[in-house]
Amino acid sequence: MRLFNPSLLDNLGGNADVLAKKLENKTAVIGVAGLGYVGMPIALEFAKMGYKTIGVDPSRWKIESLQKGKNYIEDLSDAEVAEVIHSGMFISSAEYDVLADADVIYICVPTPFNANKDPDLAYVISAGEGVSSILKKGQLIILKSTTFPGTTEDYLIPVLNKSGLSAGTDYYIAFSPERVDPGNKQFNTANTPIVVGGIDSDSSILAALANSKVIEKVYMVDNPKVAELEKLLENIFRSVNIALVNELALLCERMGDINVWEVIEAASTKPFGYLKFQPGPGVGGHCIPIDPYYLSWLAREYDFETKFITLAANVNEGMPYHVANLVVREIANLPISISQAKVLIVGVSFKKNVKDLRHSPAESVIIRLIENGIRNIDITDPWVEGEGYEAAGTTYYTKDISPEMIASYDVVVLITDHDDFDIPAIVKHSRKVIDTRNMAKNITENRDNIILLGSTPKKEKIVMQH
Q1: 328 by DSSP, 3-state: which?
Q2: Looking at 57-168, which runs of residues are DSSP E strands?
Q3: Which residue is catalytic, options 196, 242, 287, 427?
């Protein structure tokens, strides 16, 4: 691996040199396929830097919003998006034909898994077919969608080559994984270092050069497979460590008298050799719930089982079940039937202070509650848009919090730790609170009404007589 250095451009010739010069003098046209959390920020950065930028997305409402100058990505500046649209530096369409003039095309589409938790590359293949229809000599294609090693070379290139052009001969191609962290106020597209891996030297250098125009640091690795696996490692690292503290939380509940949150804070006083991770009701977002299964699926092709990685994913997937069981346990102590119980879910986005609902653990908790016979479920989340939150085939609309509203529920479950929530008020007026994020850690009143994930109320010590 090495940091990109402009001196590498001296090694380029032919069409590669032509494209490099266009990137240098800002006459290169940038195309972006997929205008979501990854693609739209990339498009905005290039347009802001003075590159004509063209975006494509099959979502009509996204295109209609953009054509009206409206932004729909919370981490982006509404004013900046409107400016590049009104200035003509950024245009968008639902059709791939508009990318015919692009010199560099980023593919930033979803990579979910199917019902069997096998990779679903339908979006990548579809984007590849769209790009293939307008592919021309000298273009650079950069795949950014998180995926398993081999996707670029074994799946995307064969689709692109249907154009009659050959990768590495007629066009250039590389993989450069996204590093988007929704809601992060410190790191954004421009100041987060990235990695690129091309199928050959020219592809790597051109991909690094293109990215360097909008990103401060770009590192080059040997090939796309290294870059693809590197991305999986980033997210599986988090999955494994979250699973570790989740399992520890379950153990602390079983043992009693030990608060896992205090254990974690104590361990965090060590200035070296330790990174802080916290337990919770499950994992969410696009990457952490999915990436372990992408790698385990690929490993089976090599007669290898990723036991450790898969186990961690299983632990995390079990947390919504555990939270639902805590709710059912508390309802069992009340003089009502489970079908009569009312439950309020506080926070449904997958992380604090963002409106991203992808794979939120709240959905899994709601599904588990319904499976246990609890039907009277409501949600409250100031980050949920007016169209509501879809879970278990039902659309839930956010409720406004009031003392009377809180008091009407038998159990309140704190799922997402948004700063907007008035936790003291919620605890004060609740009959019972299940706290999955330690949101009520500083509250001393009504502690008996709080059930904290990873902690069991102190029990009488049994003294053995000898």
Answers
A1: helix
A2: 90-93, 104-107, 140-143
A3: 287
SS3 for 311?
Answer: helix
Look at residue 356 in the predicted model and tell me its pLDDT.
87
**Are 214 and 279 within one domain?**
no
374 falls in which pLDDT band (50, 70, 90)?
very high
Beta strands in 111-266 (DSSP E): 140-143, 172-175, 194-198, 218-220
Count of structural domains within the chain: 2
Which of helix, strand or coil describes residue 302? coil
Nearest Cα to Cα of residue 215 among 79, 38, 356: 38
Helix H or strand E segment including 353: none
pLDDT band, residue 287 (cuts 50/70/90) = confident
d(CA 218, CA 8): 13
User: Does residue 279 carry a pLDDT above 50?
Assistant: yes
Residue 283's pLDDT is: 95
Cα–Cα distance, 403 to 417 (Å, whole number): 19
| pLDDT at 445 exceeding the cut of 90 | no
Domain containing 211 equals 2-222
C-alpha distances in angstroms, 149 versus 92, 224, 297, 304, 363?
Answer: 31, 7, 11, 15, 30
Is residue 136 domain-shared with residue 258, that is, in the same domain?
A: no
CA distance 55 to 99: 8
Q: Is the domain of 189 the same as that of 254?
A: no
pLDDT attached to residue 463: 46
Residues 215 and 255 both lie in one domain = no
Determine which helix (DSSP H) or strand (DSSP E) holds 389, and give its type and residue range: strand 389-391
What is the spatial distance between Cα 451 and Cα 360, in angstroms, rounded to a whole number? 21
Residue 464 has pLDDT above 60, yes or no: no
| Residue 237 belongs to some domain of the structure | no
DSSP 3-state percent helix, strand, coil across the chain (nearest 5): 40, 15, 45
Which tokens hold the place of 307? 């036991």
Give domain status of residue 423, yes or no.
Answer: yes
pLDDT digits (tens, 9 = 90+) for 17-52: 999 999 999 999 999 999 999 999 999 999 999 999
> Is 108 part of the annotated catalytic residue set?
no
Same domain, 444 and 302: yes
